[in-house]
Amino acid sequence: MTVKTILARKGTAVVTIDPAATVAAAVKLLGERGIGAVVVTGAEGRTIGIISERDIVKALAATGAAVMETPVSEIMTRKVVTCGQQDTIGELMQQMTEGKFRHVPVVEQDRLVGIVSIGDVVKSRLEQMEQESDALRDYIRTA
Description:
This protein is α+β, with helices and mostly antiparallel strands and 143 residues long. It is built from five helices and five strands; from the N terminus they run H-E-H-E-E-H-H-E-E-H.
């Protein structure tokens, strides 16, 4: 199963934010959309960072409430791990586990085409395991 399969099911919409937007604006966006991360895009919609709930909590712990007026670009994660649509769920799970992150932007030819969360990956993997289990049960019944 590939990332493309996940995007086909969940869609390709990605919530983005400008690097000059405040952390308060990012918090509002996260809350309104019920999501855990927002992709930070620069010129021509290029991915230049990602800001997650974890980034915000770390900044609050270090700086206090004043961080809310700070530009997103100052606290975002700059080294964004991305994937392509042809990457497998297994590869993605390994990257997320080793990197300890929960959101991966999907990029094709330097263009943002989707985002995958750990929830999406787990859901897909569980569906795959269920299909395999059903196939084995059918095989045993007919053997």
